[in-house]
Design goal:
The protein starts with 5 loop residues before the first strand and ends in an 11-residue tail after the last strand. Strand 20 and strand 21 form a beta hairpin. By secondary structure, the chain is α/β, with parallel strands linked by helices. The chain is globular. Helix 2 crosses helix 4 and helix 10 runs antiparallel to helix 12.
Length: 771
């Protein structure tokens, strides 16, 4: 038996990493991370056993000669010991240990036991690997000879109950949180060995008292400089006061229902800071559906805290994380996720964004929600940071209907066990409480949030700044030609349609008329292009010069625009209300005008969108001479109840339901997709100089995190084109890790297809364009 066993080879300073030290350090750090949710015992166990197989002779030979000895499984043994020694109490730790290289698998005890059985693995390993040692007892003997001891069973909790058909979503989150503590600790300790010169990267702590004072002074200055009407300013002041008052409540589930333009962004931040102070919470996480709103929100927050620049790096204090990387298997990966020894040369310094070690995090719904249902180490690594946090969801009406029930159950568990607060904010609050019986099957707490805004404030009635002109007859539509003639009569107006091709047709009609101040906006345009258009729109509105914007629904949720007149194609009721939120937003006019019309081609982005539009149609027809009131929360309560009765969210997505029922982490991760259809990222020639620079760099170096961060503002998302789609002729693949072509990243080669006014418009096909 060897006297000294290694966890990793020598680093650049010729210092080796002894296995005893690595296991001890990972166990201690994992226990520290898990102490936020009272699971230190399980985390310590997982840390001690996660690399037990490295005591095997084959693994030690692998470190001595990695070219001769390859493909060694050093994780299954530790998981097997956890399962056998601790039985039910060891299931969660066993899953975490097994998953720290291959991702979380099935949690059913019999399936887990079968997948870890050393006799079966020795005969036929599913990944074609060899066990470092086929006798776990020999590994435990070496472990104990190295001065290590396993904790007693009394220190281990019981976070997974595989025998029950209830609350399985809650149990799966418990496993992911333990998994998160383990893999983050492993990443941190491995990096500390490989890059001791870099030092341990630790994000700053939330400084609530200071931040409250900074925000208060900023809000006072903002109120004094506001050009909004006195009515709107008072509305915003009342919402802020309501948020401050509600912040004294204990942690839990909340809704914040307030009209557009009422100042929800900063009022929510005020709630979060006060609430964190009262309840001793650690961080604030803001979840937003669209990149355009993220950029706007981050800009607003950084303006609040700009006075702190001398003391804090703003990129560390307010972390903007909207890369989609990390929620799926890494580029070019084909085997186990072996981040700590198979290819140490490719290990680089991990950014704070990877584990959300920052006091304020702003991220996308895709990144946040898919991480909550992920099974890979890189995606789950940050989850333990959510314990004892305030999680603010903006524009929650965008959540996909077929994901609603498991999503709310998981968020409910976050509040129930992990001491966090979840806030759902929107002007069009979905009636999620209607789904409480279904949600309660997945998580004991169910979904019964408290509203932050008192009813007696009458915010919606006081905020009424628009008059909606509904169609007289929904059976009669308006042609694009007639609509363009009507729009051309307005000096400043916004027109929102449901599809990109509708926006293009209407824009071209108006362009042919030489309409002054005409602009186009859609996700055919890369984020940098959209930002430039929005800046031009705001300039024109401010200077009172002609401005006619033709847009898809990408402009609706959270984008701060203030048009005197808005036209909206028939669609879901919440979309119509969100469009109205871009009209007379600051109350400068006595009343803004919103015209709802039925276009000549009444098509929608997908079936769920059409169903919501149909429910709106039914409600409209039921009201007869009493028009729909989009400023009434009661209208939306009725609308969402009818929508959920029609669509039955609890019975949608059978594949996801089956994966959840089987406690199948891998299957769940594959089926839980915030964006329904498979999409690809395409670098487009919006800025030719940067396009050529980014193109040449990635073709030379391959796909890297750094390149993605730089190039993302110049990319467009496309539905994955079919093999026979002509767009494929213009897509050049990008190599990922190990030279393998990426399935998700491409370069658009025909520069003539990217237009200065409409973005990417391939002439041969529009099937791949995201609506």
């Amino acid at each position: 038996m060897r006297d000294m066993h290694l966890a990793h080879t020598a680093n650049q300073f010729n210092k080796v990493d002894y296995l005893h030290d690595h296991l001890t350090n990972v166990a201690n750090r994992a226990a520290e991370f898990a102490s936020a949710f009272d699971a230190s015992g399980e985390a310590c166990l997982a840390g001690l056993l996660h690399d037990l197989g490295k005591y095997g002779e084959l693994f030690q030979q692998r470190l001595e000669d990695p070219r001769r000895v390859r493909g060694i499984d050093h994780w299954s043994a530790g998981a097997w010991v956890s399962l056998m020694k601790y039985q039910h109490k060891g299931i969660a730790a066993a899953l975490a240990i097994q998953g720290h290289h291959i991702g979380l698998q099935k949690a059913i005890k019999d399936a887990l036991r079968s997948s870890l059985d050393p006799k079966k693995l020795e005969k036929s390993h599913p990944l074609g690997l060899r066990l470092s040692e086929n006798d776990p007892a020999a590994l435990l003997e070496a472990f104990q000879h190295d001065g290590l001891q396993l904790p007693g069973a009394e220190t281990i909790g019981k976070s997974l109950y595989p025998g029950s058909e209830f609350h399985r979503v809650a149990s799966m989150l418990d496993v992911r949180m333990l998994f998160s503590a383990l893999v983050d600790a492993d990443f941190v300790e491995t990096e500390a060995h490989l890059r001791p010169d870099a030092g341990r990267k630790v994000g700053p702590a939330l400084q609530v008292e200071r931040d409250k004072s900074v925000l208060s002074h900023y809000l006072q200055r903002l109120s004094g400089e506001s050009d909004a009407s006195s009515t709107v300013n008072q509305l915003r002041a009342d919402l802020l006061q309501a948020c401050t008052g509600a912040s004294a409540r204990p942690t839990g589930l909340f809704t914040l229902t307030a009209p557009t333009g009422a100042g929800k962004t900063l009022s929510m931040l005020s709630f979060a800071l006060n609430h964190a102070l009262v309840n001793d919470l650690r961080r604030i996480v803001v979840v937003i559906p669209y990149l355009s709103i993220i950029e706007q929100t981050v800009e607003a927050y950084r303006k609040v805290f700009e006075t702190l620049r001398e003391h804090e790096d703003p990129n560390h204090y307010i972390l903007e994380d909207h890369s989609l990387a990390g929620t799926k298997r890494g580029e070019g990966d084909s085997g186990p996720e072996d981040a700590d020894m198979e290819d140490e040369a490719r290990r680089t310094s991990r950014l704070l964004a990877e584990n959300w070690d920052a006091p304020i995090v702003v991220t996308t719904s895709v990144q946040f929600l898919e991480s909550l249902f992920a099974n890979r180490p890189s995606a789950c690594r940050k989850l333990h940071r959510l314990a004892r946090s305030v999680v603010l969801f903006d524009e929650v009406q965008t959540l996909r209907v077929d994901l609603v029930v498991p999503t709310l159950a998981t968020l409910s568990r976050l509040a129930e066990r992990y001491g966090s607060t979840v806030v759902f904010s929107t002007a069009t609050q979905p009636a999620f409480g209607h789904l409480n019986p279904a949600i309660s099957r997945y998580c004991r707490r169910g979904w019964e949030p408290s509203e932050i805004v008192p009813q007696n404030l009458n915010l919606f009635e006081r905020a009424k700044r628009t008059f909606v002109e509904w169609p007289i007859d929904l059976e009669h539509s308006i042609s694009w030609v007639d609509l363009s003639e009507r729009l051309a009569k307005d000096s400043q107006a916004l027109c929102i349609v449901n599809l990109k091709r509708h926006a293009l047709v209407l824009y071209r009609e108006l362009k042919a008329k030489k309409t002054e101040g005409l602009l186009h906006l859609s996700t055919n345009m890369c984020p940098a292009h959209r930002r430039q258009v929005l800046e031009e729109v705001k300039r024109r509105l401010l200077e009172a010069v002609p401005c006619l914007l033709i847009s898809t629904q990408c402009v609706e949720a959270g984008v701060d625009l203030d048009f005197p007149t808005v036209f909206r194609a028939w669609g879901p009721l919440e979309a119509i209300a969100q469009a109205a939120g871009r009209c007379n937003r600051n109350g400068k006019s006595q009343v803004g005008k919103v015209h709802v019309f039925v276009p000549e081609e009444e098509n929608y982005p997908d079936g769920a969108y059409r169903q919501a539009a149909d429910v709106t149609r039914i409600l409209f027809n039921q009201r007869a001479n009493d028009p729909l009131d989009i400023d009434s929360p009661q209208t939306f309560e009725k609308y969402y109840r009818d929508l959920y009765d029609l669509t039955e969210p609890q019975n949608r997505n059978a594949a996801l339901t089956e994966a959840l029922a089987g406690l199948d982490f891998d299957g769940t991760a594959g089926q839980y997709r915030v964006i329904d259809k498979g999409t690809v990222n395409v670098l487009v020639p919006y800025d030719l100089v940067l396009f050529e620079e980014f193109r040449d760099e990635v073709l030379q170096t391959g796909l890297t995190r750094q390149w993605i961060a730089k190039a993302r503002p110049y990319t467009v998302g496309l539905f994955r084109p079919r093999d026979d789609d002509p767009v494929r002729w213009h897509l050049q693949s990008i190599s990922g890790r190990h030279g393998t072509p990426s399935e998700d990243w491409f370069i658009y080669t025909n520069v003539d297809h990217y237009k200065d006014d409409t973005g990417l418009t391939p002439p041969e096909s529009s099937d791949c364009l995201i609506a």
